[in-house]
Design a protein that fits this description.
The structure is a single chain. The protein is of the alpha/beta class. The chain contains 19 helices and 16 strands. α12 runs parallel beside α18 and α16 crosses α19.
Length: 506
């Protein structure tokens, strides 16, 4: 959020720009109005947003065009003031002021505009019928406020809306032409929904909604307030609520509603709490929080850090089995980080299916693949295919088939999961090397298996994989291939461990 706000008032002579500023400061209409008010700074502690606000007046009689252009370039928001009883001043909004502002502002930075209809005490009708077409024509116009400097009507509201247009801009969030949120906003809110979905079931239940509420606004919602929120969504969106919880569609609908009703500060509060800046990009300080390490010292993960990483892994890891009817695989089935093609070494016709799947879907893709030779405790039978599994892997620049069995007294070998994770971490490398050079990704993976630090990581994290996914039902079918999208956080742990291994010889 900005550290201060600079508001510039422009408009035709005698529309009341200076009167508006003086009425705000003195809380009464001035008997004598100067040509131009001096720049005024409102302290942070008396503004609703707790941000210092500078209010700058413009006078055609006292300032040159060059001074006006400089003020326009420095302004965070510009109020174009017109008189509701002066048709010419309204016409000048589009014929003069908006083009002038556009010419003197950076094309890449959108300066929000507020239309201010002053002297509403002099007429009985509203100017909004004339102003609405102008607002629809120019997306940079945030809002229009009719006010009276003489009667002090909507004076504080005017400057509040101007401040709000800077601190909580509508532009990055919403497209008025489409009446919908912009893609970047949807993407950011989707990430926030997934982070708040603690059990990863695609629904925010009451506990998760309160977690979200406390995270963003430091206070939970009362049970009745929760029900009221869900009822609003139910009335407007058939699939916005499921199993008495808020779906992603319902979550996005609520924020669209906030923005449409002028409550976009609510959405901005949420976005900023989760690390987003005014351009809806994650802040560098959020992505890379500073960590000062004194000279000669190193950092280590403590027990609580390991538990945290394990909880994130538990939440996000997936192993997804796709059955033999591969002619009907959907795009969602194919959108994976790594593919396991599993065949039965004791079944001579098992490998043919894996080869067929690979050639049809993954031979020309960038998705890394690994062949798994399951039931390796049984005698290996020659596969009825044009070449052996090892030769097939060599031809297609894949790692050699990895032996695996659950039928051992010591328990299944966990190394295969380390290899899968490494391949998912470095998909461009594909682990294609068949040598033992100790430099390529595949060989580094082998060395990585023996690192001391990894023993703790494997015990804490990969035991979870084995306990959950290497059951008696898994890896015994002779004709299926397994797709694994490994949790992103475990990649970070393994990457840190690999870094330590590679650093040690230096």
């Amino acid at each position: 959020m900005r550290k201060d706000v600079r508001i510039l008032l422009v408009g035709e002579p005698k529309v009341g720009k200076t009167s508006l500023i003086m009425s705000l400061v003195s809380e009464e209409f001035p008997d004598v109005v100067p040509y131009r008010a001096e720049e005024i700074t409102i302290p942070a502690d008396v503004t609703p947003e707790r941000v210092p606000t500078h209010i700058v007046d413009y006078s055609e009689a006292e300032q040159t065009d060059e001074q006006l252009f400089q003020e326009i370039s420095k302004a965070n928001v510009i109020c174009i003031v017109y008189s509701v009883n002066n048709k010419k001043s309204i016409e000048k909004v589009t014929s003069h002021w908006i083009p002038l502002i556009t010419e003197n502002t950076d094309k890449d930075s959108r300066v929000p505009l507020i239309l201010v209809g002053n002297k509403s005490d002099l007429v009985e009708h509203s100017s909004m019928e004339t102003i609405l077409p102008i607002m629809n024509q120019y997306s940079e116009i945030e809002t229009c406020v009719e006010c009276s400097a003489k009667n002090l009507k909507n004076i504080s509201e005017l400057f509040y809306y101007a401040q709000k247009a800077v601190l909580h801009p509508t532009g990055p969030l919403y497209c008025p032409e489409k009446k919908d949120m912009k893609p970047l906003c949807v993407k950011a809110l989707t990430r926030i929904f997934k982070v708040s979905d603690l059990d990863n079931d695609g629904i925010l239940n009451d506990n998760e909604l309160n977690f979200f509420q406390r995270t963003c606004f430091n206070t939970p919602l009362e049970p009745q307030a929760l029900e009221d929120v869900k009822n609003v969504v139910r009335k407007n969106l058939s699939d916005g609520v499921c199993d008495n919880g808020l779906t992603l569609k319902g979550f996005l609908f609520l924020h669209t509603l906030f923005i449409q009703r002028g409550r976009h500060e609510t959405t901005w509060t949420v976005l900023r709490r989760f690390g987003y800046d005014d351009d809806l990009e994650l802040n560098q300080d959020y992505l890379f929080p500073p960590l000062k390490v004194p000279p000669g010292c190193t950092t280590e993960l403590n027990h609580n850090a390991y538990l945290f990483l394990q909880s994130i892994f538990d939440k996000h890891d997936k192993l997804h089995e796709v059955f033999p009817d591969f002619d009907y695989l959907s795009d969602a089935d194919l959108a994976c980080d790594i593919v396991c093609l599993v065949y039965d070494v004791s079944n001579p016709y098992s490998f043919e299916y894996c080869a067929k799947v690979f050639k049809q879907y993954f031979m020309d893709s960038k998705t890394p693949c690994m062949m798994i030779a399951a039931k390796s405790d049984l005698p290996e039978i020659k596969q009825m295919y044009g070449c052996s599994p090892l030769e097939f892997c060599r031809r297609h620049k894949m790692p050699p088939p990895q032996s695996f069995t659950c039928n051992t007294a010591a328990g299944p070998n966990r190394d295969i999961y380390i290899k899968l994770t490494t391949m998912a971490m470095y998909p461009h490398a594909r682990l294609r090397c068949m040598c033992t050079c100790n430099r390529c990704t595949f060989c580094l993976c082998q060395n990585f298996l023996n690192s001391e630090l990894l023993q703790t990581v494997r015990a804490k994290l990969y035991a979870v994989v084995l306990r959950r996914h290497v059951s008696q039902a898994d890896l015994k079918s002779s004709t299926f291939w397994l797709r694994a999208s490994v949790g992103a956080t475990v990649f970070a742990v393994l990457g840190f461990a690999m870094y330590r291994v590679l650093l040690k010889p230096r």
